[in-house]
Amino acid sequence: xxxxxxxxxxxxxxxxxxxxxxxxxSLPEYLDTLRAGEFITPILPYGTIQAMFKSGGLxxxxxxxxxxxxxxxxxxxxxxxxxxRTTGYRKFKLWIPWAIYGVKFAGNTCENVWVRFARxxxxxxxxxxYYPPMSNISLDGKVCMGNSIGEVINKEKTVEDKAVVAxxxxxxxxxVDDSTPDEKAIPDLIxxxxxxxxxxxxxxxxxxxxxxxxxEAETYETYTKxxxx
Length: 229
Known about the structure:
By secondary structure, the protein is α+β, with helices and mostly antiparallel strands. It contains 5 helices and 11 strands; from the N terminus they run ββαβββββββααβαβα. The chain has one domain. The protein has a 4-stranded antiparallel sheet, with helices on one face. It has a 3-stranded mixed sheet with strand order 6-5-10, with helices on one face. The chain has a two-stranded antiparallel ribbon with strand order 1-2. Strand 5 and strand 6 form a beta hairpin.
């Protein structure tokens, strides 16, 4: 039996697809096959715009796109004093543009998380992605995942749940002020000598921060090629 389906593609074209139904089974049977691990669940994390499955599902990666929103972050700042090193915490509420998360797995273990920003929803491979001007993220977009973060992510039962938790825990973790800001990644409007000043200026902009001139990093195609290798 064949069914016709209309598919709206990311490049704003429309495809008419004929799909052949190989087999129809009951819902309980389907759920049993998922629990038995006989094939990969088609239920993807919310916001997934692209996914990769290799080596019989042993290697997986998801690209998750999230709309602009306000995020609260915690900055962990260290200061040297005559009595030793002290640690202080400060919270900021930052407006975040479109965020593109890459979450990669080896088996059921989360290996890495990558983050890039975008001005609009991703529609085509050559769309430009931008550097997130944040500590805890290297220039290639890879998140510095502490052991505690990785442990929380990997406690989840399914890979799909782990991917969602990875995005959540990226924001819930403390951002450190130990690294030196790189001018290549920081918009001129919020540039500062350290991340404390950068986050202060970013917060002061309010929702207008969404219109900042973010620094260009790479295309979406280049980003996914690195993620999916």
